[in-house]
Amino acid sequence: MERGGGSHQVGSMLVQYNCLDYQCEPDMVDQLADIVELYHRRVYLAPYPRMDAKIALAAPGRLLTLDDLDEERVKEFIRDNLSR
Fold it and tell me: What does pTM read for this prediction?
């Protein structure tokens, strides 16, 4: 995730998932949506088919990939990168 020409809002980040190439638990996307909703307008959730990870969190200069949903690690990553 690059800042580019300046349209990046500080604290904005992406949470993406790939349920095409990985087996996702039936409620995984709903759980991710619940987490993202806690950070309304700062964190965005989107599918990313063919991504080389099941779950990826991206903030400027930072990336976390997960093989399974770990709610605490997701929240920790978001909290740690809100000021980036």
Answer: 0.86
Distances (CA, A) of 57 to 31, 33: 14, 13
Q: Which of 39, 20, 23 is nearest to 77 (CA)?
A: 39
Residues contacting residue 54 through CB under 8 Å, at least 6 positions apart: 17, 18, 19, 22, 24, 65, 66, 67, 68
User: Which residue(s) pair with 56 in the sheet?
Assistant: 16, 65
Q: What is the pLDDT of residue 8?
A: 53
Pairwise CA distance, residues 67 & 61, whole Å: 21
Cβ pair 13, 44 in contact under 8 A: yes
Averaged pLDDT, 41-69: 96
